[in-house]
TrEMBL record:
Name of the protein this chain belongs to: Holliday junction branch migration complex subunit RuvA
Gene3D superfamilies assigned: 5' to 3' exonuclease, C-terminal subdomain (1.10.150.20), DNA helicase RuvA subunit, C-terminal domain (1.10.8.10), Nucleic acid-binding proteins (2.40.50.140)
Molecular function GO labels: ATP binding; four-way junction DNA binding; four-way junction helicase activity
InterPro entries xrefs: DNA_helicase_Holl-junc_RuvA_I, Hlx-hairpin-Hlx_DNA-bd_motif, NA-bd_OB-fold, RuvA, RuvA_2-like, RuvA_C, RuvA_C_sf
Pfam family, one: RuvA_N
Domain notes: Has three domains with a flexible linker between the domains II and III and assumes an 'L' shape. Domain III is highly mobile and contacts RuvB.
UniProt KW keywords: ATP-binding, Cytoplasm, DNA damage, DNA recombination, DNA repair, DNA-binding, Helicase, Hydrolase, Nucleotide-binding
Family to which this protein belongs: Belongs to the RuvA family.
Amino acid sequence: MYYYVNGTVAEIGPNLAVIDCGGVGYACATTNYTLAQLKRGEQAKLYTYLHVREEIFDLYGFSTQAELSSFKMLLGVSGVGPKAALAILSSGTPDQLALSIVTGDEKSLTGVPGIGKKIAQRIILELKDKLAKEQTGFDARMGPLSPIPAGGKTQEAASALAVLGYSSQEISAALKGVDAALPVEEMIRIALKKMAR
């Protein structure tokens, strides 16, 4: 319903930012990462997700589309609601979440309050599959000249970057020349550094 809210940061609280848009204050539940980007009295743009259930309308806001995309992806996992998804994203960045999923790192997820081993395993299992499906679409968009070989660590790294919202061209350029013998986590870190320049 709402794509984003753009206005002045009126209030900041625990996991909450109120954005004043033309005299209307939108209370957005959010992550520690997004809160760290905001300052009271300054302009801010938050990409939003409206969660509706029964008579409750909760608005969630994120400073980046990658964080919003990760939030929606987590909501797609059975047993993960908005509060759990917010807690997971508050414990790290979307990049770290993608690394945890790609590498099957349960410990980073079970370290989040309220996330047990079963939920962590389900998140990894279901989202790894989703990453694989997105990778298939990614490969199709890359076309026959794709420098990313099918299968292997490079493809896993490309999947993680795709879920973070990077385009096929950005991913291809970032992974070009990266040693395919490196661990997936290191390949992703190198690619992210290249794209941050």
